[in-house]
Amino acid sequence: MQEALHQNKTFEGINYTGQRVAGREFDDCNFRNCDFSNNDFSNSSFTDCRFEACNLSLVKLNYAKLQDVTFTDCKLVGVDFSGCNDFLFAVRFKGCSLDYTYFAKKNLKKTIFESCSIKEANFTDADLTQAAFLDCDLTRTIFQRSNLEKADFRTAYNYTFDPELNRIRKAKFSAQGALGLLAKYDIDVK
Predict the structure, then answer these.
(1) Is 1-68 assigned to CATH 2.160.20.80?
(2) Where do the H-state alpha helices sit in 93-172?
(3) Which of 3, 66, 128, 136 is the most buried (most CB within 10 A)?
(4) Fold of 98-190
């Protein structure tokens, strides 16, 4: 992993806990069952990469490029994505733990979050136009001044946010889930 450029490689079972892998470039790489918790990926570039069953909790991503990166069954607890490079930023999450993550001011248009735990995350000022939260737990997650237009919350659960503080035009909700839009009124609906 010491090389500056990695192309078409598979990294499996690597334990790089607390290491610094900053300033590296990964193109079309696979990461399987790796532990990168508390790692520093600042200024690194990931293009067309896949992370499977990896621990990336508390990873630092300052100025990192994430272009078409897929995370499957990964632990990303406490990761701050807001510092990532915005140019061509595109991620997808399936079966991941994204608790306490920070996505403030990120462009997450059409991003798919599928079967994820996204508890106490922060999406303040994020653009989630046409994003999909498919079977996701959004307990105490913050949506404030977020663009949620055409976003899909139909199978998401435990979300509450203020429709007056977010753009929700044509967003999709289930009848049960829509009650989370009324939470601020402290009313009892039966």
Answers:
(1) yes
(2) none
(3) 128
(4) Pectate Lyase C-like (2.160.20)
CA distances from 118 to 106, 123, 134, 168, 186 (A): 16, 11, 11, 19, 23
- Retrieve residue 85's tokens: 């490079």
* Residue range 130-152, pLDDT digits in tens: 999 999 999 999 999 999 999 99
Q: Which sign does the torsion angle of CA 4, 45, 92, 49 carry?
A: negative
pTM of the model: 0.91
- Cα–Cα distance, 131 to 77 (Å, whole number): 20
- Exposure of 97 in the CB half-sphere (CA atoms within 13 A): 11
Tell the residue number behind the tokens 């977020």, with chain if given: 146
Distance CA 30, CA 148 (A): 31
